[in-house]
Design a protein that fits this description.
This protein has 4 helices and 27 strands. It is α/β, with parallel strands linked by helices and about 260 residues long. The strands form 3 sheets. The protein has a 10-stranded mixed beta sheet. A 9-stranded parallel beta sheet has the order 1-4-7-10-13-16-19-22-25, with no helix packed on it. Strand 26 and strand 27 form a beta hairpin. The protein starts with 6 loop residues before the first strand and ends in a 17-residue tail after the last helix.
């Protein structure tokens, strides 16, 4: 299952059922799990752990040194779970500080040339589309969709089932269940994603009402959160409120009024 042209570090641990294609390079004490396929010209570096049933496509580089001027050569890690797909040219950098890690969960799909920087934490069942860039310490919660050529600033968190439209960028946290575009602006709820995730009409309607009061009403966001928190709501609305209250960077803006709309 290992092509004769592959270059394998003697410190690596490779499951007998894993497959390594032509000119694959394993440089360091990597661990590769059962039935994982690493295709031609992919490179794994350092303390990189790959779980079971993953597919790493041609030219991907996993575990490279972080693009951080403060990196001093410390031992750090990349940990990837099970059933992930990393397409051509994906890059995933290891952690910056000693003992720290970049972590990717299960069932994620990273399209070609997506970049995951040092110390990112990616949950389960996310999609990161072609050319999208995640800065250092970004956190994606479960089932996030990052569209093509998006840019997510370092330390930003993106909440569960949020969707970032193509070419959008954010330096603020993106609340769960929302659609973001432009520059950290939320436009509405990710209705298609919510329905596919099995949310009921009642759950979606509750989120609609909360979204209107948080991001469309002409009320200070902190005040709107406090007013909603004083009422009874289903768990999804509480999750949205908790996310906003716990944000360290501040959350995305609601849509601004267009010229002439006030009149």
């Amino acid at each position: 299952m290992i092509h004769p042209s592959a270059l394998i570090d003697r410190r690596a641990t490779i499951d007998p059922t894993a497959e390594l294609g032509p000119f694959v390079v394993i440089d360091g004490p990597a661990v590769i799990g059962a039935r994982t396929r690493i295709l031609a010209h992919a490179t794994l570096i350092g303390h990189t752990t790959i779980g079971a049933d993953n597919t790493i496509h041609c030219g991907a580089v996993i575990g490279g040194e972080p693009q951080d001027l403060g990196f001093a050569g410390a031992e750090s890690y990349v940990r990837i779970g099970d059933r992930n797909v990393l397409r051509e040219g994906v890059t995933v950098h290891r952690g910056t500080k000693p003992g720290s890690a970049t972590e990717i969960g299960n069932d994620n799909y990273l399209m070609n040339n997506a970049h995951v920087a040092h110390n990112c934490r990616i949950g389960d069942r996310t999609i990161i589309a072609s050319g999208a860039v995640l800065g250092g310490y970004v956190q994606l919660d479960d089932r996030v969709f990052v569209s093509g050529n998006c840019a997510v600033h370092q330390f930003v968190r993106v909440g569960r089932l949020a969707l970032l439209r193509g070419l959008s960028r954010t330096s603020r946290d993106v609340p769960p269940f929302c659609i973001m575009d432009g520059t950290h602006t939320v436009r509405g709820l990710n209705l298609i994603g919510l329905r596919r995730a099995g949310f009921s009409a009642a759950q979606i309607n509750a989120l609609r009402g909360a979204f209107r009061r948080l991001f469309r009403a002409k009320v200070n966001l902190r005040r709107a959160v406090a007013e909603l928190a004083a009422e009874s709501h289903p768990p999804e609305v509480i999750e949205l409120l908790d996310f906003i209250r716990s944000s360290q960077r501040g959350v995305c803006f609601g849509p601004r009024a267009r010229r002439g709309e006030e009149e």
